[in-house]
Amino acid sequence: MKARKTRRATMLGDISLELQRVLASQNTGGFERYYHDPVGFCRDVLGFDPWSRQREVLTTLDGHDAVTCPAGRAVGKSRLGAGAALWFAATRGANSRVILTAPGYRQIQLILWEEIKNLWRASAVPFRGDCGKMASTGIRFASGAQIIGFTAEDPVSFQGVRAPEMLVIADEASGIPD
């Protein structure tokens, strides 16, 4: 009788551990309602109201594999990219990765990464995870989702970087070689 109880306890323990593992892999920190609503995520979670063209890009991003956004100077491209990165990583769970790239270090670290860190810190709903000081160390959400940045100067740096759910944000893409 004791052996049966032990075996049953072991099975229940195994099932419990597996259930925890599955839930952790699906954990999006309570942001699942924004899975198809990047505009709502920006408003409600990040605390900024995207203007009409930003809303258009965010809405298009949700339903397409590739989106381009030609734009002039000082129109909110970096805020848009930062919001899109945080939305994607926060809503896609453990199997997601966001790659940020630009022609040079300055654009990634001093502009895009600063915008991401500012939105991360000011978020109305706290994110669970660690936000690095550098784009190269990135953000690791408690779910396992990741945002990381590196320059496009060396195409080899992109090799081996993959995930089942992935978003690549290329800022100042006109300066990135084909």
Compose a concise summary of this entry:
The protein is of the alpha/beta class.
Structural write-up:
The protein has 178 residues and is an alpha/beta fold. Helix content is 45%, strand content 12%. It has helices spanning 2-26, 38-46, 52-63, 77-92, 105-122, and strands at 96-101, 129-131, 139-141, 146-149, 165-170. Strands 2-3-4-1-5 form a 5-stranded mixed β-sheet, with helices on one face. Strand 3 and strand 4 form a beta hairpin. Helix 2 (38-46) packs across helix 4 (77-92). The model is unreliable at 19-27 (pLDDT under 50).
Strand order of the largest sheet: 2-3-4-1-5
Morphology = globular
Structural class: alpha/beta
Largest sheet: 5 strands, mixed
Percent range for helical residues? 40-55%
Topology (SSEs and partners):
Layout: H1 2-26, H2 38-46, H3 52-63, H4 77-92, E1 96-101, H5 105-122, E2 129-131, E3 139-141, E4 146-149, E5 165-170
Parallel strand pairs: 1-4, 1-5
Antiparallel strand pairs: 2-3, 3-4
Helix pairs in contact: 2-4, 4-5
Question: What are the salient characteristics of this protein?
Answer:
178 residues, alpha/beta
